[in-house]
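Hello again,

I reread your note about wanting to compare the complex against the isolated chains. To keep things tidy I'm splitting this into two emails, and this first one only covers the full assembly. Below are the input lines as submitted, including protein chains and any nucleic acid or small-molecule components. They are followed by the predicted structure of everything together. The single-chain runs will come separately.
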Amino acid sequence: MSQPMAKKKKLSLTKRHNLTGWAFLAPAALLIAVMSFYPMIKAFVLSFKSGSTFKTMEWAGFSNYIRMFQDTVFIQSLKNTFIYLIIQVPIMLVLALMLASLLNNKHLRFKGFFRTAIFLPCATSLVSYAIIFRSLFATDGFVNSILTRLGILHTGYGFLTNPTSARIIIVVALIWRWTGYNMVFYLSGLQNIEYSVYEAAKIDGASPIQTFFKITCPLLKPTILLTAIMSTNGTLQLFDESVNLTGGGPANATITMSHYIYNCSFKYVANFGYSAAMSFLVLILVAILAFIQMKVGDKRD
Amino acid sequence: MKRKVVSLILVTALVASMTACGSSGEASTSGSSDSTSSGASSEEAKDDASAENTSATGEDENTLTVWAWDETFNIYAMNEAAKVYQKDHPDVKVNVINMPWEDTQTAITTAATSGDYSTLPDILLCQDNAFQKNVLSYPDLFVDITDSGIDFSQFAAGKTAYSVVDGKNYGVPFDNGAVIACYRTDILEQAGYTIEDLTDITWDEFQTIGEDVLAKTGYALNSTEAGEPDLVMMMLQSAGASLFDENGNPTIADNDALKKVVETYCSLAQAGVLQITDDNWDEYIKSFNSGKTAGAINGCWIMGSIQAAEDQSGNWGVTNMPSLVGVDGATNYSNNGGSSWAVTSNCKKTDLATDFLNSTFAGSVDFYAGILPSSGAIATWSPAASADVYSEPSEFFGGEPVFTKIVDYASKVPSNNTGAYYYEARDTVAVAITNVMNGADIDSELANAQATVESYMQ
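Full-complex prediction:
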């Protein structure tokens, strides 16, 4: 598009190209603006108001934002979300990377079967997998009855009634659900790495571990960055697992920010101003984390 | 040629989906622009919306639209009520729509927040626990039916109180939530007790018997969900105590009755007499259906779930719940759950709606007698108990006339204040109890809970 525009005829052609481009862009851009940006601006305005109905809402300045940091339940949900983020995302990404490089092996048999099997959890609905995990780890659920049959436990252990184990169950569930999804990204990234690079490394006498760290990881960096940002984003907006698997309990030990925002909007006396303010904090956190990851991960510029 | 056809189809699909998205986008913006835009345009948006939605309440003057959520229970009851009413008013139609409570609450919140009630039906069923919250948050949501001719004194007082705000009646009470204590008579027998030993007792006596039953048979006498303070709320109401005072201020800290309730709860749980299940309803039902717990203390609607275990037929008995020790006004009666019918301000036929409710849910013994056998919906309307079906013995519950018992219990339930912030208070108390069970100090936890609830109310 930035060709030198010397002749008149060429200029009109570029112009026409530009116009065609904009014509293609316009519908999507318009839809995004109307359905995504406009509500976002509205919500931002809303976050400075308080009251139970739109008609009676009054400007409240920063009070919603100040209240957030005095709200013990919100602080707890913030902590919980960050615990999930710090523990779950690294484990999941490392696992996905390892699985992807294993499944990229040219000599592996039944590759398609393994890839499908690992990706399949992504096809299950969020609610149903959360409920299945809930009944697996119930006090007299599947896991407990196996452990008691094997003689490891005497009576069933309350996985979901103990704060630490309840958090671990959520992390385990998340890893089960999302590892395959990230693996697919890595697999497609790996397709772009020339096989001759690996052959050359082999000839030079590099061990598989060296190849993984010296070739696979650096060449996959853009994909790793992408998955890290997406996973961070997803974890900060975690909702279904908290609601359906643990119900946020015991004693708010597993409640996530989105779950609490939902409670404040629909379970409790509706306070959409406060909910909007909390949603914006989530947005700011996602933006900051993505920015840090971009700065740390992408050294191209 | 082939390619052209394919691309034509794709383009058509794309255009179709875009126009579909576009129109819904417009609708949503016109709805939300209500909030800030000037009066004129919001008026316009309202007109549009009401024009679209007249079908929700029915243009026909003789059609009532109703929302309820259980096909075999309240929807069935409403349809039967319609049949009863149609005998005298053949041209009246009642259109019952299945709407889960969570969705009803979301619809109420959305409608009331935007000030546009046109999406609501004429009559809706409201959870008793959420009734005051909705009336206090949205004063013009429901129609005041105090002077509609319905005789509210014929309903159980503890039940009617849920739908009364500032002395005004906003709801017609429907199903009974009187608390009953159900015990496995066969297990009690093994330990040397009868159902009479558990009638009119205190929680202290309950614990003594419970420990004995546990030692002899390995059965707990009651169970409850971790994180759901149903039992705590029942205990509290049995002494006429609440989490809020009459003005709606929280009374969680320095509440002697609540403190006693928490102590009793923890003591029962630690003794193993009260089994704490995982935080979900299925686990709770399983605790007595699969036979680890020999009792269930809950609203009388729990009978439906108990009867699901058909092999235990005849082995259950019903009596009243234990009472608190050392609390003024302690009784053996309480309430949990239940719902009431409310007429929304979107109803343009309030006379028809109230007359319909008055001649069925508040005025027909035959109607209540008709719905009892198949739905188990026990009336809170006292005259209904005179119907013959109420005195029929229940084979499952040891051949006793349980329904008469329950109507009697319901009339003795002390009333309490749910207030607007009931769900907030409930959740914070649940957190406090979990912490106390793990060794925290009761007074400081209840003070924390009070502070948390107050922060919601600012």
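For quick reference: Chain A has two domains: 3-37, 63-297.

B.
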